[in-house]
Design a protein that fits this description.
By secondary structure, this protein is α+β, with helices and mostly antiparallel strands.
Length: 185
C-alpha cells in the first residue's frame, strides 16, 4: 500500500469512494476539489495495485485458475486460450482528511473501499494523517463518528481518541447520533 496526498487526478476515484461509503451524505466532487486545493486541509489517499483476495472464499484456488499440474485448456482451434489482461492501475483503497485551524485538526472523512476494510487501511491512513497534521501545528484533534460504527470507534480509541460528547441526530439516512471524540497530542 502506498499513502500519499490526494490529488486532483484522484478525484474521480475519491468521489466514487465517498458515494460507496457515505451514500447521500457523500461529499461532492467540487467539495473534494476545494479541500484538495485548500492550504488548511490535508487529504491522504491509500493506493493498492491489485484487488485484495476475498477473505470469505474457502476455495484454495480461484475458479478461473487451473490446478498446478494440469495443461491449459485449448479452444477448438487447438491454440491455448489467451491470458486475461492484468490491471496494474492503482486502486484507491481509502482516503481521509483533516482541516487544520491553528492548533486544532478536525477529522472530516475516513473512507475505505468495502473490499479493503478490516485490513488495516484506515489505521495506517489515520496514523499518517495525525503525524502529518501534527507537523503542520495541530496539537488537538476532534471527530464525529456514528454511534453504531463500532469498528471505527474502536480504531479511534486505539489511536488515543477519547469520548467527549454526543451530537443528537447528527446523521441522517439513517438518523443516528454522533459521538464526539478528541485526541490531545
Amino acid at each position: 500500500m502506498r499513502i500519499r496526498e490526494l490529488s486532483e487526478e484522484d478525484l474521480d476515484q475519491a468521489v466514487c469512494l465517498e458515494r460507496e461509503c457515505f451514500g447521500s451524505q457523500a461529499w461532492s466532487g467540487q467539495a473534494l476539489l476545494d479541500a484538495v486545493r485548500n492550504e488548511n486541509a490535508l487529504y491522504l489517499a491509500a493506493f493498492e495495485t491489485c484487488a485484495p483476495a476475498d477473505p470469505a472464499s474457502t476455495d484454495p484456488a480461484p475458479a478461473n485458475l487451473a490446478p498446478v499440474n494440469s495443461a491449459p485448456e485449448k479452444p477448438a482451434s487447438g491454440n491455448p486460450a489467451p491470458e486475461p489482461p492484468v490491471s496494474e492501475a492503482p486502486v484507491l483503497a481509502g482516503c481521509c482528511g483533516v482541516w487544520i485551524s491553528f492548533e486544532e485538526g478536525e477529522i472530516m472523512n475516513v473512507a475505505v473501499r468495502k473490499e479493503y476494510r478490516r485490513k488495516g487501511v484506515a489505521g495506517k491512513l489515520m496514523k499518517e494523517l495525525l503525524s502529518r497534521a501534527e507537523k503542520r501545528g495541530a496539537a488537538r484533534f476532534i471527530l464525529e463518528v456514528r454511534e453504531g460504527n463500532l469498528p471505527a470507534i474502536r480504531l479511534y480509541e486505539s489511536l488515543g481518541f477519547l469520548h467527549a460528547g454526543r451530537r443528537r441526530n447528527f446523521y441522517s439516512d439513517p438518523a443516528e447520533d454522533a459521538l464526539i471524540m478528541i485526541k490531545e497530542i
